[in-house]
Amino acid sequence: MQRVRIDFLNHVLIQGLYVKDQNEDTLLYAGEVQVRITDWFFVRKEKPVLHYIGLQDAYAHLYRTPRSNVWNYQFIIDAFANNNKKDTAASSFDFDLKKVELGNVRFHMDDAWVGYDMDYGVGSLTMNVKDIDFKKELIDVDDIDIKAALVSLKAYKGGRPADTNKSIQVYPIDSTPFNPDKWLVLANSLSIKNSYFNLSLDDRIPLAGQFDAEHLQIKDIGLDANHISIRGDTIRGTITNLKAIDRCGLAIKKMKAKVTVSPVESTCDNLYLETNNSKVQNYYSMRYKRFPDFDDYITNVKMVGHLKDAVIDNRDLVFFAPQLQGFPIETVHVSGDGEGTVADLSGRHMIVTDGKNFFKGNISMKGLPDIYKTYIDFNEGELITTGPDLIKYIPSLVSIPDFGFNNISSIYFKGDYNGYIENFQVNGIFNTNLGSLSAQVQMNMKDFNMNAATYSGTISSDNFNVGALLKQTDLGIVSFKSDINGRSFNGENAQLGIDAQIGRLDLHNYSYRNIIAKGTLAKKQFTGKLQVDDPNLALEFDGNIDFSQQMMHINAKANLLKSNFYALKLTKDTIMAVGDFDLNCTGSNIDDFAGYAKLNNINIKRNQHRLDLDSIYITSKRYESNKLISIQSNDITATIKGNFQLSKLPASVQYYLSRYIPNYINAPSKYAPDQDMSFTISTKSVTNIIGVIAPAFKGFDNATVSGSLNTAQKKVLLKASIPEGSIGNVHFSNVSISGDGNYDLLELNTSIDNVSIGDSVLNGSLSVTATLGNDSLQFNIATSSIL
Predict the structure, then answer these.
(1) Which of these, 288, 226, 280, 221, lies nearest to 261 by C-alpha position?
(2) CA distance 532 to 511
(3) Running DSSP on this structure, what letter comes out for residue 564?
(4) pLDDT tens readout for residues 697-730
(5) In whole angstroms, what is the distance from residue 322 CA to residue 333 CA?
(6) Model confidence over 111-125: pLDDT tens digits?
(7) Which of 117, 164, 203, 499 has its CA 20 to 30 Å from the CA of residue 411?
(8) Which DSSP helix (H) or strand (E) runs through 166?
């Protein structure tokens, strides 16, 4: 000791107290120890009062080395050890205390033998005490002021060797109350400023920006509390402000609460917690059977929480779940009641909103913290969102290019969700701006792979605009109910089994009614049966439609029982037809058509004209760069071969005519491609056919027409033989026509054995030679008339 001062009977001052251990290391150093006590306390009857206890610049260091299990202070214990029994009859000691001051005090207890260091320190501590009463078992403190406190706990591999032969001893859990004598401890106020807490449980280096409960470095700790009490085993107090900053960057900006801690419950009532970007309020409690339950917090500690308009910011959640980095949700407001352990958690009256999207319902989750093994039961749920927001929250939806999520401006869902996040069942109703959908669907999405997803259940819609959802302009509103069973949401790999009843299907601006569809959609193919019982269409279809390639392929049989093409908005004239069809063909239009089409029992009515055909067989084949179209029936046969486009043929003919008579016929405004074709048409009995196609024409049975057109070589040939026919009121027989032309001129030679006009009794033969070109017609006519 450097200096000792004793003011007789009431004051002691010790400076420079130094104690070494047997290794010459510092065991204890105290720069100054000071005590003030009641004068003549040992002769007075009233209890002595310690008016002041002060300790400045003190350092105590207890340690064990990695090579020894003996503490460096053991020699002191040994020196004072004796076998004398305690004097249990000694009178109890009573005193009072008024003030304690500590300055720059450190206490280190470093255990390298086990591998655990505990270091404590305080820059300054001032405590003013109202009363200490041993008889009443009372400690009443006015205020405690702590500055620059330090608590550091560090675990590491110690030097103690493992004893493989010794069985592990399991010590019983000490459940003794920490205040068995039920002292009453009161503190009017507690203040902690600029303090620090460190925890390191292994040698691992923590990741920057991530909260790690085993590696805490909490600085700038500040606490203001009042009305603190310890009654029995229960601690109560009011925290008016708590703030701190962790190593990862997470900060508690402000915390207020009425706190209760007991051996069975820890509660924060009237809670307000503000972090970097989040705010949480109103109640939080942890309930347990005993404190050691915290060793198995996930299953043994029951949490109860009441949230009132809590603000949760994703930037704060990233500290705990770094996988949320970049997640589109920034801030949500949460209200509701939660209860349960982490492993079995439930919430009622939950409301979550980001200001635009809204989520409400009751939820329970069993299996946390592993979200992939957690069973979720969400009921009485409501969700308000939009298609673009779904993409924002679930970016993987972008991988479904055939869905127009951006066309969904509003979604309201009400229903239930049961299952895991990758395997679940949804039962509810979706109301959107496109219409409504109801679903009871089981879905399995392993690893959230939309391409490998499987699903089954029942879906129905009420006036839902499927065309807008699927980005199909020709498709409109659909009302249906269907059982489904399928896999994948990728159009290239999807397979969907359906058994549907369609009440309405808008296609090409017509609303089809009463459709039954049963089959499979897979890889852009439909295989199955279709029945239509629409007022303007009665149809039975059985086969396959493949639209996976550029050109659609159909292999099917169909029975057309009724049709009105005008009412279906497919034609401008009133055309009604029935018939049986056998189709095996490819093509999206008449130019791409390849394969065959067999039509039987055909009945067609156009306006007032009716056509009945037993059968028509149409084939189209390709060879090299050419194709051959053949039409065969009991009434007509025809062949067309070459390199041509039938859909553009009218434009090509118009182009020729515009060359012949340009002042009367304009060149086509649309593209007229080169045509190279030859054709032959032979008729038998075609009166009914012509009546449907060209009502002004009659007859033309047993006629033949042939010819060719080669626009590249500027060549036109035509030959026709017509036994008889009529155009309007002109009747003729034995007609022979031959024609030869180029881009500039067309020569026609026509001979008619007999021609008559209307009911005239005049008739005769006619021979015409004509040349057409350059807006002029030159012709020679020879006739012979007979009365």
Answers:
(1) 288
(2) 12
(3) B
(4) 888 899 999 999 998 898 999 999 999 988 888 8
(5) 21
(6) 999 999 999 999 999
(7) 499
(8) none
Asked whether residue 579 carries a pLDDT value surpassing 70, the answer given is yes
| Distances in whole angstroms, Cα of residue 623 to Cα of each of 115, 628, 629, 713 | 88, 8, 11, 21
Paired sense of beta strands 49-64 and 99-111, if any: parallel
Compute the distance between CA of residue 584 and CA of residue 567 in angstroms, rounded to an integer. Answer: 27
pTM (global) more than 0.70: no
CA–CA distance, 232 with 183 (Å, rounded to integer): 6
590 vs 176 pLDDT, higher one: 590
Q: What are the C-alpha distances in Å from 676 to residues 641, 645, 659, 709, 737?
A: 8, 9, 18, 6, 21
At 763, the amino acid letter reads N
Dist CA 105 CA 61 (whole Å): 11
Q: Which residue has the higher pLDDT, 44 or 751?
A: 751
**Which of 376, 382, 351 shows the shortest CA–CA distance to 363?**
376
- Tell me how far the alpha carbon of residue 490 is from its chain's centroid: 15
Classify the phi-psi angles of 657: left when phi > 0, otherwise alpha if psi is within -120 to 50, otherwise beta: alpha
What's the pLDDT band for 171 if we cut at 50, 70, 90?
very low
SS3 of 565-597: the string is CCCCCCCCCCEEEEEEEEEEEECCCCCCCEEEE
CA distances from 340 to 297, 307, 375, 563 (A): 11, 15, 14, 65
The count of other CB atoms within 10 Å of the CB of residue 503 is 17
DSSP character string of 585-644: EE-SSTTT-EEEEEEEEEEEEETTEEEEEEEEEEEEEEETTEEEEEEEESSEEEEEEEE-
* pLDDT tens-digit map of 370-425: 878 899 998 888 999 988 888 777 776 776 777 788 889 999 999 999 999 888 99
In this structure, what are the phi and psi dihedrals at residue 702, rounded to the nearest 5 degrees? 55, 35
Quick one: CA dihedral 421, 426, 428, 432, positive or negative? Answer: positive
In contact, 374 and 420? CB cutoff 8 Å: yes
Lowest average pLDDT, out of 210-219, 324-333, 430-439, 449-458, goes to 324-333
